[in-house]
Design goal:
Blueprint (H helix, E strand, L loop, with lengths): L2 H17 L23 H5 L2 H7 L5 E7 L2 E6 L4 E8 L3 H7 L7 E2 L6 E5 L2 E6 L3 E9 L8 H16 L3
Antiparallel strand pairs: 1-2, 2-3, 3-7, 4-5, 5-6, 6-7
Length: 165
């Protein structure tokens, strides 16, 4: 696994510890028997399309894999780059608290209720219990997009995930 994948898993674990995002959270809809964070396991297959991966990563050839019920990653065949998505039951207080652990977070407009972008990716929150973290990176030169353009591309994925039941 790349360093950024491990950081993404660590970010998700830290938010889980701070907010209690285990599978014991309340279902999104009464009787649904499913949690919103469960969308994380398949988010890479659904939202990291070939066009999106080709726009973000220098080498788009690779595959998605489930990391947990709430997280997945897309890794290139050369292990040079990856994109990791982690969904949590994090609300605004956890989001605000976690900002101190990010390297130079910058507000990211238009994503969820509040979002920031740092050197490892983006963190966003919507409502009281929806957190979305997407990390993209890897070896030097593995990313085609940087800065605000990368933040908006990844933020659009979080917005799509926030719209799910």
């Amino acid at each position: 696994m790349s360093r950024f994948t491990l950081i993404g898993i660590g970010v998700g674990a830290a938010l889980c510890a701070a907010t209690g995002c285990s599978g014991s959270s309340a279902p999104v809809a009464a009787g649904a028997g499913r949690h919103w964070t469960d969308n994380g396991a398949t988010a890479c297959d659904t939202y990291l399309t070939h066009d999106l991966v080709s726009a973000v990563l220098s080498n788009p050839t690779g595959q998605s894999k489930k990391l947990s019920v709430q997280s997945c990653t897309y890794e290139t065949t050369d292990s040079g780059g990856s994109i990791t998505i982690t969904l949590t039951n994090a609300g605004l207080p956890a989001f605000d608290h976690y900002q101190q652990y990010l390297a130079d977070p910058v507000p990211l407009a238009g994503v969820g209720d509040k979002a920031s972008q740092s050197v490892t990716g983006i963190d966003a929150v919507k409502g009281a219990h929806r957190g979305c973290d997407i990390d993209a990176g890897g070896a030097p030169g593995s990313l085609k997009l940087h800065g605000a353009e990368l933040g908006q591309k990844l933020g659009a994925i979080c917005n799509q995930l926030f719209a799910l039941p």
